[in-house]
Amino acid sequence: MLGLGAAGVAVGAAVQERVDRALSPINRFLPVGGGFRYYSVVDRVEPRDAGDYTLTVSGRVRDRRTFTLADLRALPQTRIIRDFQCVTGWRVPKVPWAGVALPDLLDAVGASPAARAVRFRSFDGAYTESLTMAQARRRDVLIATDMLDGPVSHDHGGPVRLFVAPMYGYKSLKWLDGIEVGDKVVPGYWEERGYDIDAWVGRSNGRDDEPT
């Protein structure tokens, strides 16, 4: 038992070391708030006022659209309570999230039935992520406008961020401002640095604990 415990600590330390290498020499800020650690992959991310915020959805869609925050809030809303699990080992349990379920947003723009992937872009200018269309169609993948029972703060990736409930936190892209529907998964910022493209937490393989 002691040997297994030591092995677990070593694996966690190795993962953290990989994150440290990826984040330096760029800025890394880790004030602890409510159990969260805050990361940025660029030197500075300028806050975006909620009143000026826009999200553009393009690619293989019937209607290319640009949504304001008010537009997103006018769409059907989904609320879930899920843990936020970082690949480095820390977890914040039972976080309230709310926003537009990604399937509802894809339906609103008429995403092509033949499309196979969805790519996400951050307004930090560096961070990208992708999901397969099957993953993007889950009801527990949110375009999150609220968390912790209030608007998503800038440090948490607001005004709007992605939340992929069944996957590790690096898939939940912060400072979301672009979504592109396409034909293939494009490795994102962290995948280009050696992380898994499919980042399921635990052994669920994304099949269980999905909201209705």
UniProtKB/TrEMBL annotation:
Domain of life where this protein originates: Bacteria
Coiled-coil zones: none
InterPro entries: OxRdtase_Mopterin-bd_dom (IPR000572), OxRdtase_Mopterin-bd_sf (IPR036374)
Gene3D superfamilies linked to this entry: Oxidoreductase, molybdopterin-binding domain
Domain Oxidoreductase molybdopterin-binding per the UniProt entry, residue ranges: 48-190
Protein's name in the database: Molybdopterin-dependent oxidoreductase
Organism taxonomic ancestry: Bacteria, Bacillati, Actinomycetota, Actinomycetes, Streptosporangiales
